[in-house]
Amino acid sequence: MRHGFEEDSDSSIAFVLMMRAWILPTLLVLCGSAVAAVLVFEEKPGAAAALLLVFLVIAGMHSPLIFPGSIGAREAQRRSAEDGRPVVFWRPGCKYCMRLRIRLGRSASQLHWVNIWRDPTGAAAVRAANDGNETVPTVVVAGRPHTNPDPAWVREQLSPSA
Prior knowledge:
The protein has 162 residues and is α+β, with helices and mostly antiparallel strands. 56% of the residues lie in helices and 10% in strands. Helix 5 links the parallel strand 1 and strand 2. The longest helix has 19 residues. The termini are far apart. The mean pLDDT is 85.
């Protein structure tokens, strides 16, 4: 039987994990805004706009927004068992996850994505597969984990019906 305190604690942990994914993008937007403000005061609005745009693009690339919607690890594993599609464990800010996502292109939406910073069960699955390390991307195909696989190989793992 669960007590109210334990449920509050679980939701607090989930909130902290979710917010962690937005720390780097938020800092990038704030820094870009500060630098752009200085350039505006120096009467260089073109440079300010260009620099702010660069910071916004970098922030977007490091945010959870460029990845298909994440689901929980248990739900991803259930869906994968039904449709045979791979599960990708990832986290925002990971350059290897970003490389995988970009190189997969439209195929990325056919995979089941799990953000380990939002899902403690997903983080535990990654640690179990990687000797206690949260090494991502970890792609699980037919129940077997593959750490930082080549994007072309991942694309090959998609069934024609997916």
